[in-house]
Amino acid sequence: MTALSRRHFVASATLASLAPALPAWAAQGAAPATVAPLAGDDSVRLDYNESPYGPSPAAIEAMERGARHSGRYEYEQQVQLIELFAEQNQIPADHVGVFSGSRAPLQCALAGYAGKRSVVTGAPTYDSVAAGAKALDTAVHEVPLDARHAHDVRGMLAADAQAGVLYLCNPNNPTGTLTPRADIEHLVAHKPAGCLAIIDEAYIHFSDAPPCLDLAVQHDDVLVLRTFSKLYGMAGARLGLAIGKPDVLEALQRFNGRNFVSLAAALGGIASLQQADLVAERKRINRQVLDGVLKRLRAAGYRCTEAQANCFMVALGRPAAPVIEALEQRAVRVGRVFAAWPNWMRVSVGTEQQMRAFEQSFFRVMQHA
C-alpha cells in the first residue's frame, strides 16, 4: 500500500468517526450564537480568520446606540476607548491611537518608515505587508520561518542592515504559530537605527503568549498593532489600535489626517473591553474547537502547525490551489495560497459544526485527488 493510499484509508476511517455527538457545550448551546449571512450565502466560511460569533451582545447593543447618535461628531467616545484600553493595560494613554482596523496604521507605517529602505518580513506571514511595500516601490525581504514555524529574527536582522521596517506577526498569520518573547526582544534590541519594528498582535487574545505592549512603551520606533476584528468579532466594523510612543503615532497620523472611527465602532469597542469574561470565554471555545480538528486531522495522517490562533495550516503533500477550489465547489471556503508554502492550506477556526463540515468535505476531496 502506498503512502498516499494509506493516507486515504486513514482519512476514510476518520470520516466514519465523525458521527459521534458534538461536545456537550455545543449541543447545549453554551457557545455564542452565530450570525446569519447578509446575502443568504450558506457557505462554510473559514477563509478570512473572522469570528463566526460576531460582536458580543453588549457590543451589538452599544453599536446600535452609536448608529442612533451618528448625526453628531461624538469624538469623546474615541477618547474614552483610548483611556479604557490604556488603563486596562497600564500604559500611558498618549501611547494609544485608534484606527479603522489594524491595516490602516500598518500601511501608514510602511509609508512613513520604509521609503527607499526595505521591509523585512517572515515567510509565510500576513501578505498585505509585502503587497503594501511593493505598492510603495519598496524592496521586500521575506525570511523563511524557522523549524518551529516561528519568525527567524536573526535571519530577519541579517536580511538588510539598513531595513526601514521589520514586521513580526505573533501569533503568526497564516500559521497560527508563536515566536518566543525572547526572540522578539532580541529583534527590538538589535534592529537598525531608525527602523520601525512592527509587532502585529491581531491574534494575541487566542494565545498564551505574553503581549508586547511594554516594548512599544519602553523602546523607540516600536509599534504594536491590535484589532477588534478577530476575537471580538468586529471585522466589518473596522476598529483597531496602534500602540507606540507619541512621535511614532504622530508619524502615522501624517498619512491619516485627523483619524476618527465611527461612533458605532468606538462604542462597540468600549463595550467589548468592558465585558470582563469575553476574552477568556471566546479563547476557551476557540481552543477546544481548534484542538479537536487538529487531533482529527493528525489522526488521519496530516501534518498541521502548532497553532495558537483562530487559524492553522495543514500540509497537503500537493499544491493547495486545486484543493481550495474543490472545497469551494462544496461550499467550503478556506484561505488563499501563500507563495512561501504552496503545498499548505490555511483554515480559519469556525464553530464546531463548521469544522465538522470542513473535515467531511476535506477528506472526500483528498480521497478523490
Written description of the protein model:
It is a single chain. With 369 residues, the chain is of the alpha/beta class. The protein has two domains: 3-54 and 278-367, Aspartate Aminotransferase, domain 1 (Alpha-Beta Complex), CATH 3.90.1150.10; 57-274, Aspartate Aminotransferase, domain 2, CATH 3.40.640. Helix content is 42%, strand content 14%. The chain contains 14 helices and eleven strands. It has helices at 3-16, 24-27, 57-68, 76-89, 103-113, 128-135, 153-159, 181-190, 213-218, 246-253, 263-274, 278-299, 320-329, 352-367; strands at 44-46, 96-99, 119-123, 140-144, 165-169, 196-200, 222-227, 240-243, 311-315, 332-334, 344-348. The strands form three sheets. A seven-stranded mixed beta sheet has the order 2-8-7-6-5-3-4, with helices on both faces. Helix 3 packs antiparallel against helix 11 (263-274). It is globular and about 55 Å long. The chain starts with a helix and ends with a helix. Residues 1-29 have low confidence and may be disordered.
Task: Quickly count the domains.
Answer: 2
> Considering the protein shown, what is the CATH homologous superfamily of the largest domain?
Type I PLP-dependent aspartate aminotransferase-like (Major domain)
Strands of the widest sheet, in order across it, are: 2-8-7-6-5-3-4
- Catalogue the unreliable spans: 1-29
Secondary-structure element order, N to C = HHEHHEHEHEHEHEHEEHHHEHEEH
Proportion of residues in β-strands: 5-15%
Count of helices? 14
Give the termini separation: 17 Å
**CATH level-1 class of the largest domain:** Alpha Beta
Largest sheet: 7 strands, mixed
Q: How confident overall, as mean pLDDT?
A: 91
